[in-house]
Structure formats: C-alpha cells, structure tokens
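dude i think i finally got it to work??
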Amino acid sequence: MKITIAIPTYNRGAILVQTVERLLALAQRANEIVIADQTKTYDPAIESRLAEWSKSGAIRWIRLPEPSIPHAMNEALRAAQSPVVLFLDDDIEPSPDLVEQHARAQDDASIWAIAGQVLQPGEEPRHHPRPANDLEFRFNHDEACDVANVMAGNLSVKRERALQIGGFDENYIGAAYRFETDFAVRVVAAGGRIRFEPAATLRHLKLSAGGLRSFGDHRVSASPLHSVGDYYFAMHHVDRFWRYAMQRMVRNVATRFHLRHPWTIPTKITAELRGLLLARRLARGGQRLGGNLSSAAGLPSNTDP
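look at this
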C-alpha cells in the first residue's frame, strides 16, 4: 500500500534535517515525504539542504505563512498523493520497519487510522491496564487494541476517510492541545475504527525548543494558548462540561511545581480563565474543519518550485 509521510514542522530546522535523513535511509521508504513547514527563516545550510531535497524530489516542501498544527496537517493531507498518510513529528527516531508496519496494519478496510507506539524519552514498551477513558491511554503500551484516541506524532490515516470527516479542526490554536483526540472522536462517530499498533514504533526525542515549545512554559505563562484546546474539546465532546472544566483547572493549578513556586499560581489561574473564555468564543463559531475532497486534487499553491 502506498504511503505518504507528512511532517508538520515549526522552528526545528536541524532536527528536521536529521529526521528526514533517517526516513530516507529506511529499507522500505514511503512513496513521498511532504513537509508542511511553518518556519519563516532557516540558517543558510539548512535552507540549502531542504531546497536540494525539494529540487531532487526527495521531499515536497510546502511553506506556510503562520504556525498552526491542524492547518499544517490539513495542507499535507490535501497535498498527499497516496491513499494512506502517515503523520510524524519532526523530532523522531523511526523504527527500521515503521512504514512497513503502518502499511500492513492499514490493509483492513474497516480501519481508518493507525495509532503507532510512541516512546517518550526514558520510556520503553510496557503493558498498561486499559484505562476507563482512552483520554488516558498510554502510547508506550505493548499490545495491539482498538482505541478512541491517537497521538498525531505517529498516526497513519486513510486519506479519503480523513478528508470525508473534514480533516483536523483548525480552531485548535496555539499548542492545539486535544486536536488529535477531537479527530479520533470524529473518526469513531463516523463509523471508523482506530487501531493501536505497537509494532509501528518510534522514539520521540521531545526537543525542548521549537514546535509546541515555541509557545513557552505552560506552567508560568499567562497565555491562553496552552489551555484553550482542552476547554474547546470539552465543549464539543464532554457531557458534564463544567465539572470537567473545574477538575482541569484544579489539576493544572494545584501541581507540585506551583505549590513549590506559589507566586506563579495567579499567573496560571489567569491563563486557565483566559483559555476558557477563548474556547467559548471559538466554540460559538462552530468547528473549523479544514479537509474536504473538493479541494484535495493537486498541490497547494504555496509550495517550493
């Protein structure tokens, strides 16, 4: 089965180059690699390397004017020329058979998405008791199973099915927390299956700069861009919203860090309240789904030549 690898990236030039090199070195490579790049400028050496790959056809390099994780993923989804799109983070070490395992798992027509195993720094595969709610599913789990949640850093989707449900909701702004869970909920609601496949594994390097870390440390920031996604998600998918919202607020303020640094608590409370208000404003306008089949033919106009 043909697979397009899609990598959304933001301010991660050096590790992006390393990740592409690793993917190009796989024994079974993807049919194409699409880079949905939200970075404004690079160092000359990195710019030259990416341009060289783009010119040779090793990658398709889409330049985007503003950072937005779901928008970048929607652009890559529309641009992809394969029936399966494998979304990967830009800071990973893929297993040698990552592409092969996703292709094998996608053979089942009832499956719309495969959530691969993600090993965070210091983690190894291990067996976890199944949580009552897949919001708490651990993606270093060691056993294949159907799930109702995904991590977008190792996620393959059947392209037409993903476009059919509108792709990713672009109202998840800033850190875009819960945007992939929102996608998973809509997949299941539309009748699709999501399979967690531990054989499709990678290591997430979790760099401390660039990407989501560009939005600062959520523990000490007054910005709503870290919390808005969770409140927005709950407004659409959680029955007892105010209970969920209050539990989130307490859980994120009464942390060990904040108890040890009590002067940061007012700032954190401000961030949570601002996130709640921003989520209400976004929810009033309805979901902003970015994928549709009518716009899926051909490459977007903002690509490198």
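The radius of gyration is 19 Å.
im so relieved honestly
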